[in-house]
Amino acid sequence: MKFVITGSLGNIGRPLTKALVEKGHAVTVISSNPEKKNEIESIDAAAAIGSLDDANFLASTLTGADGLFAMVPPDYTTGDSRGRYRKIGDSYATAIKKSGVTRVVQLSSIGADLDEGTGFILGSHDVEGILGAVPNIELTTLRPAYFYTNLFNFAGMIKAADMIGANYGGNDLMIMVHPRDIAAVVAEELEKPTGGDVRYIASDDRSCDDIAKVLGEAIGKPDLKWVTFTDEQTQAGMEQNGFSPHIASNFTELGASVHSGRLRKDYDLHKPETLGKVKLEDFAKEFAAAF
């Protein structure tokens, strides 16, 4: 079968592409970076260099494909995060219609069922609606939990202040997922001829205190604590560290939805039958190696 993968060779794209190629599928990887061409071809995939907001480029790349993995890569430089998601979502919709591809697996997010109060995830909510309105396709919507790899963002704080801090913490529960576990689910779904469902993906579910303890032990800081900041402290701290008010506000709003528990309410009603393979203790080894 022929599949088109977006997201270049990122944390999901690389293991996903390798898995599909190993199964004998023909894979085309879309990247906006021309320098990725040789790297993509080195794992026996074809490279398509272009922009996701170029519907004509997407349609040309999708023509003849049996399936599409559609994601919106993060961009923390934009001044209109939700507008960017909508633009790329519209581009996907136009290209899907023009190309005739019928099997689409969309990477959305936990919390995308909500239409307010989730920061960046509102963009995923919008794209779910855009793709859901495309006629005559078999659409599967994947809602992964918090990426373990986002915990790398706390490394600087740990080194500087011996703590992890956000506007969520303590006993707040964090549903987490490893990109490799996401890639495994995407590969499984692409090979299915039909869609029509929403599927959550998670690897582990732990409190912030647990996360700090496990990561701390892995890096030789057994007393590492997770400190809960106020929304105001979080917003101000991010702006002091160079984030624009728009991006800082999105992160703050998202964190507040974790702290309140709103983000996970639909997940708790529709938990996956099985969790991914990578548990927190497994990821802690990766964190320690990079730390």
Salient structural properties:
291 residues; alpha/beta; seven-stranded parallel sheet; three-stranded mixed sheet; 44% helix; 18% strand; globular
Radius of gyration: 19 Å
The largest sheet has its strands arranged as 3-2-1-4-5-6-10
Query: Overall pLDDT, averaged?
Result: 97
- Assembly level: single chain
Number of helices: 12
Describe the sheet with the most strands. 7 strands, parallel
Strand content: 15-25%
Q: Which stretches are poorly predicted, pLDDT < 50 over at least 5 residues?
A: none
- Quantity of strands, as a count: 12
The level of helicity is 40-55%
Structural class computed from helices and strand pairing: alpha/beta
| End-to-end Cα distance | 40 Å
Shape: globular
The helix/strand order is EHEHEHEHEHEEHEEHEEHEHHHH
Short description:
By secondary structure, the protein is of the alpha/beta class. The protein is 44% helix and 18% strand. It has helices at 13-22, 37-42, 55-62, 81-99, 121-132, 155-161, 179-190, 208-218, 231-240, 245-260, 265-269, 280-290; strands spanning 2-5, 26-31, 46-49, 67-70, 103-107, 138-144, 146-147, 163-166, 173-177, 198-201, 204-207, 225-228.
Notes on the protein architecture:
- This protein is α/β, with parallel strands linked by helices and 291 residues long.
- Helices cover 44% and strands 18% of the residues.
- It has twelve helices and twelve strands.
- It has a seven-stranded parallel beta sheet, sandwiched between helices. A three-stranded mixed beta sheet has the order 7-9-11. A two-stranded parallel ribbon has the order 8-12.
- It is globular, with a radius of gyration of 19 Å.
- It starts with a strand and ends with a helix.
